[in-house]
Amino acid sequence: MGIPVEGEDIQIHSYKHNGKLHRVWEETKVLKATKHLVIGGNDRTLVTESDGRTWITREPAICYFHTDLWFNIIAMIREDGIYYYCNLGSPYVYDNEALKYIDYDLDVKVFPDMTYTLLDEDEYEFHKLHMGYPDVIDHILKRNVDKLVRWIRQRKGPFSHDFIDTWYDRYLMYRS
User: Record-annotated residues binding Mg(2+) 2 (predicted)?
Assistant: First the structure.
Protein backbone atom coordinates (compact mmCIF):
# COMPACT_ATOMS: atom_id res chain seq x y z
CA MET A 1 0.00 0.00 0.00
CA GLY A 2 1.33 3.41 -0.94
CA ILE A 3 1.30 6.67 0.96
CA PRO A 4 0.00 9.81 -0.75
CA VAL A 5 2.27 12.84 -0.86
CA GLU A 6 1.38 15.81 1.33
CA GLY A 7 0.22 18.71 -0.82
CA GLU A 8 -0.96 16.57 -3.73
CA ASP A 9 -4.56 16.19 -4.86
CA ILE A 10 -6.00 12.68 -4.71
CA GLN A 11 -9.33 11.07 -5.50
CA ILE A 12 -11.38 9.23 -2.89
CA HIS A 13 -13.29 6.14 -4.04
CA SER A 14 -15.91 4.37 -1.97
CA TYR A 15 -17.03 0.89 -2.93
CA LYS A 16 -19.78 -1.42 -1.76
CA HIS A 17 -19.15 -4.86 -0.24
CA ASN A 18 -19.85 -6.48 -3.63
CA GLY A 19 -16.88 -4.61 -5.15
CA LYS A 20 -18.92 -2.09 -7.15
CA LEU A 21 -17.78 1.52 -7.20
CA HIS A 22 -20.20 3.60 -5.11
CA ARG A 23 -18.93 7.20 -5.19
CA VAL A 24 -15.87 9.22 -6.31
CA TRP A 25 -14.69 12.53 -4.83
CA GLU A 26 -12.63 14.07 -7.60
CA GLU A 27 -10.15 16.19 -5.67
CA THR A 28 -8.96 16.21 -2.07
CA LYS A 29 -5.75 17.96 -0.98
CA VAL A 30 -3.55 15.72 1.20
CA LEU A 31 -2.70 17.66 4.37
CA LYS A 32 -1.02 14.83 6.26
CA ALA A 33 -0.15 11.29 5.24
CA THR A 34 1.52 8.48 7.15
CA LYS A 35 1.32 4.71 6.73
CA HIS A 36 -1.75 4.72 9.02
CA LEU A 37 -3.45 8.09 8.51
CA VAL A 38 -4.57 10.48 5.81
CA ILE A 39 -6.03 13.90 6.57
CA GLY A 40 -7.32 15.81 3.58
CA GLY A 41 -9.20 18.96 2.73
CA ASN A 42 -11.55 19.88 -0.08
CA ASP A 43 -14.07 22.53 -1.04
CA ARG A 44 -16.60 22.48 -3.85
CA THR A 45 -15.24 19.23 -5.20
CA LEU A 46 -17.01 17.20 -7.86
CA VAL A 47 -18.61 13.98 -6.63
CA THR A 48 -19.73 11.26 -9.05
CA GLU A 49 -22.28 8.66 -7.97
CA SER A 50 -22.31 5.06 -9.24
CA ASP A 51 -25.20 5.87 -11.58
CA GLY A 52 -23.25 8.70 -13.22
CA ARG A 53 -25.04 11.57 -11.46
CA THR A 54 -22.73 14.32 -10.25
CA TRP A 55 -22.90 17.02 -7.62
CA ILE A 56 -20.51 19.48 -6.03
CA THR A 57 -19.86 19.71 -2.31
CA ARG A 58 -21.16 22.93 -0.78
CA GLU A 59 -18.57 23.82 1.83
CA PRO A 60 -14.97 23.25 2.90
CA ALA A 61 -14.39 19.91 4.56
CA ILE A 62 -11.61 18.19 6.47
CA CYS A 63 -11.48 14.42 5.90
CA TYR A 64 -9.99 11.89 8.33
CA PHE A 65 -9.10 8.33 7.30
CA HIS A 66 -7.23 5.69 9.30
CA THR A 67 -5.97 2.18 8.51
CA ASP A 68 -7.01 0.84 11.94
CA LEU A 69 -10.54 2.28 12.12
CA TRP A 70 -13.73 1.05 10.49
CA PHE A 71 -15.01 4.58 10.02
CA ASN A 72 -13.95 7.80 8.38
CA ILE A 73 -14.91 11.32 9.37
CA ILE A 74 -15.81 14.30 7.19
CA ALA A 75 -15.96 17.62 9.06
CA MET A 76 -17.98 20.15 7.05
CA ILE A 77 -17.24 23.75 7.94
CA ARG A 78 -20.39 25.84 7.68
CA GLU A 79 -21.39 29.35 8.75
CA ASP A 80 -23.29 28.03 11.78
CA GLY A 81 -20.67 25.54 12.96
CA ILE A 82 -18.96 22.27 12.16
CA TYR A 83 -21.11 19.36 11.04
CA TYR A 84 -19.66 15.88 10.79
CA TYR A 85 -20.62 13.03 8.53
CA CYS A 86 -19.09 9.75 9.62
CA ASN A 87 -19.13 6.76 7.29
CA LEU A 88 -18.89 3.29 8.77
CA GLY A 89 -16.62 1.48 6.38
CA SER A 90 -13.47 -0.52 6.00
CA PRO A 91 -10.07 0.94 6.80
CA TYR A 92 -8.70 2.70 3.71
CA VAL A 93 -6.06 1.60 1.26
CA TYR A 94 -4.12 3.91 -1.03
CA ASP A 95 -2.86 2.47 -4.31
CA ASN A 96 -1.53 5.56 -6.15
CA GLU A 97 -4.81 5.73 -8.08
CA ALA A 98 -6.99 6.79 -5.14
CA LEU A 99 -7.71 6.41 -1.46
CA LYS A 100 -10.25 3.56 -1.33
CA TYR A 101 -12.58 2.04 1.22
CA ILE A 102 -15.74 -0.07 1.42
CA ASP A 103 -18.82 1.85 2.53
CA TYR A 104 -20.98 -0.24 4.88
CA ASP A 105 -24.06 1.99 4.74
CA LEU A 106 -24.28 3.06 8.38
CA ASP A 107 -23.54 6.74 8.95
CA VAL A 108 -23.44 9.00 11.96
CA LYS A 109 -24.35 12.66 11.51
CA VAL A 110 -22.99 14.98 14.21
CA PHE A 111 -24.30 18.50 14.70
CA PRO A 112 -22.36 21.56 15.95
CA ASP A 113 -23.71 21.02 19.50
CA MET A 114 -22.24 17.47 19.31
CA THR A 115 -25.60 15.73 19.31
CA TYR A 116 -25.63 12.91 16.80
CA THR A 117 -27.92 10.59 14.86
CA LEU A 118 -27.26 7.10 13.52
CA LEU A 119 -28.46 6.96 9.90
CA ASP A 120 -29.28 4.33 7.29
CA GLU A 121 -29.88 1.34 9.57
CA ASP A 122 -32.52 0.02 7.12
CA GLU A 123 -30.10 0.31 4.19
CA TYR A 124 -27.46 -1.53 6.25
CA GLU A 125 -29.84 -4.40 7.08
CA PHE A 126 -30.94 -4.64 3.42
CA HIS A 127 -27.37 -4.75 2.10
CA LYS A 128 -26.25 -7.06 4.91
CA LEU A 129 -28.81 -9.58 3.69
CA HIS A 130 -28.46 -9.04 -0.07
CA MET A 131 -24.66 -8.68 -0.23
CA GLY A 132 -24.04 -11.26 2.46
CA TYR A 133 -22.07 -9.27 4.99
CA PRO A 134 -20.36 -11.87 7.18
CA ASP A 135 -21.06 -11.90 10.92
CA VAL A 136 -17.49 -10.82 11.65
CA ILE A 137 -18.05 -7.60 9.65
CA ASP A 138 -21.33 -7.00 11.49
CA HIS A 139 -19.55 -7.32 14.87
CA ILE A 140 -16.64 -5.09 13.78
CA LEU A 141 -19.02 -2.38 12.56
CA LYS A 142 -21.10 -2.43 15.75
CA ARG A 143 -17.94 -2.13 17.87
CA ASN A 144 -16.79 0.77 15.71
CA VAL A 145 -20.13 2.58 16.04
CA ASP A 146 -19.56 2.39 19.81
CA LYS A 147 -15.97 3.65 19.43
CA LEU A 148 -17.13 6.49 17.18
CA VAL A 149 -19.78 7.55 19.73
CA ARG A 150 -17.09 7.56 22.47
CA TRP A 151 -14.90 9.79 20.27
CA ILE A 152 -17.83 12.18 19.75
CA ARG A 153 -18.63 12.36 23.47
CA GLN A 154 -14.96 12.83 24.39
CA ARG A 155 -14.39 15.39 21.56
CA LYS A 156 -11.49 13.16 20.49
CA GLY A 157 -9.48 13.63 17.29
CA PRO A 158 -11.47 15.29 14.53
CA PHE A 159 -14.28 16.09 16.99
CA SER A 160 -12.03 18.64 18.67
CA HIS A 161 -12.46 22.17 17.30
CA ASP A 162 -8.70 22.69 17.68
CA PHE A 163 -8.11 19.74 15.36
CA ILE A 164 -10.39 21.17 12.68
CA ASP A 165 -8.99 24.70 13.06
CA THR A 166 -5.41 23.43 12.66
CA TRP A 167 -6.11 21.36 9.56
CA TYR A 168 -8.41 23.92 7.96
CA ASP A 169 -5.66 26.55 8.37
CA ARG A 170 -3.23 24.15 6.68
CA TYR A 171 -5.73 23.60 3.86
CA LEU A 172 -6.08 27.37 3.36
CA MET A 173 -2.28 27.69 3.09
CA TYR A 174 -2.33 25.34 0.10
CA ARG A 175 -5.12 27.32 -1.54
CA SER A 176 -3.38 30.70 -1.35
Answer: 105, 107, 120, 123
